[in-house]
């Protein structure tokens, strides 16, 4: 995790961000940055503010204070250009269950202004990336939870984003599918060279070499490489201690 430099802006920069739904703030002076092509886990218990932060990153909500940079672009100043660099997987599934995997991707491609051969090529590439080519014709309703999530990740990558945001993408999955999706996205980060920002409340989804931001009650309690944040103790114990201490 590095501070921004003039030559290489971070994939994601969050600076002094504050936000609340009413009088009370649910994000307070949140600051961190993620270097390009890194996997960063946003780890926080229920109610920490993870989904609220995602709402700000995707401009579904506006901050009270602070700034968000995407690949060197200011999200408030150049929202279209900044958003076009992002792929997003929300916590709640947004697949049309009555459409096939391919049709779900085609529909989304059209929304992104992608048609014809270009769209077909991108869809095939996205299906291959997520190991879904043999399920292209299957209705989303007939997929298991893990394959539905993979379809959403494939869809989020179709327009070639530099930054992939995932809000608790393994919620509701069985342990095997959860481990598989977590592994898959870590691999994508390496092979595709994209920056990944992954929200979770589950410590076992964080690899020792990942960047890590621990969020609790709207505040950043720790940030850095996960192994360094953990030190010589298991990350789970450090996380539980930190969140209990600040409660
Ligand atoms: N629409 C809303 N109106 C008012 N308060 C809200 C709203 N959405 C969230 N909150 C509150 O904001 C705080 C942060 O919630 P948020 O959903 O961002 O946390 P989270 O880390 O994503 O939690 P979870 O893992 O449970 O989804 C919580 O106290 C929550 O009750």
UniProtKB/TrEMBL annotation:
Source domain of life: Bacteria
Database matches in NCBIfam families: PQQ_ABC_ATP
Which InterPro entries does the entry link to? AAA+_ATPase (IPR003593), ABC_transporter-like_ATP-bd (IPR003439), ABC_transporter_ATP-binding (IPR050763), ABC_transprt_ATP-bd_su_PQQ (IPR022467), P-loop_NTPase (IPR027417)
Q: What are the protein's GO molecular function terms?
A: ATP binding
Sequence similarity: Belongs to the ABC transporter superfamily.
Signal peptide start-end: none
> Which species is listed as the source?
Salipiger mangrovisoli
Arranged from A to Z, the UniProt key words for this protein are:
ATP-binding, Nodulation, Nucleotide-binding, Transport
Could you confirm whether the keyword ATP-binding appears in this record?
Answer: yes
Q: What is this protein called?
A: ATP-binding cassette domain-containing protein
Among Pfam families, the record links this protein to: ABC_tran
Q: Does the keyword Methyltransferase apply?
A: no
Domain ABC transporter, by residue range, is: 12-242
